[in-house]
Amino acid sequence: MASTVIGAGITIEGEITTDEDVVVAGTLRGRLSAKEGVTIEHGATVEADVVSGSLVVGGALTGNVTATERVDLQSGSRVIGNVKASRVTIADGAQFKGNVDMDV
Amino acid sequence: MATNVSVIGRTTRVRGRVTGDVDLQVSGFVEGDIAVGGDVTVDGPGIVGANVRGRRLVVRGAVKGDLVGEEAVLLEEGARVVGDVKAPRIAIAPGALVRGFVQTGEGDAAPARAPRAQAASRAAPKGAPAAIETRADKPAAHLSGANSAAPRRPPPPVVPALKKAKGQIAKKKER
Hints:
B: 15-stranded parallel beta sheet; 3 helices; globular
């Protein structure tokens, strides 16, 4: 259960820093820095650089991603930006434009 | 998933504006204006360092900034508010601390005195009295609205400034 939820209908313009899981279902512009998992749900819009433990994207993300564990781009997601993580999956049906760096 | 309620969790810090038309619960730290169409709850551990606007505001944590409720503002036990409070209905429970201009009623006219300077960028509520005191550009604020609170304020910390000034004068004499 995520402790921080940016629900649908909420817009945050600025910087978020947290030690908890974060679920974004609304809109975020700025920067997101989390130690644990970040979920960008279907219908969410994120225009921000994201630093996290793991990242699951179902919605729209524009920005560079750095994850210490893994990044999963789900079907229906739309991601523009560079992704850096040791494990990256892109599901069939995801839209993606950017560099992938798997730390090899 | 129940994402119709938005939560800023305990260890989460937000620097920036939070807007929207739904409910919001703040248990963490928000440094930036909050303006939502729904209810805003600032929980016990929550700290907000800017103005808050919403339909119903329930405060159990700390707010340094103005509170504007379209329906009501409820300051419950544990609330610490430094700023103006305005809503048709305002409740201040025993154990809530408030310092600022409080106005109930429907009228949407601004509070009588000038809008407070945005000292709210520094968020720690304990630092608030000093921040208000050092507003040298608005000396009238002490005389008009906040007169009753004035005698309880601690004297301004002038001693370090004096020492520094003496030192500078001494240096000039040496030259």
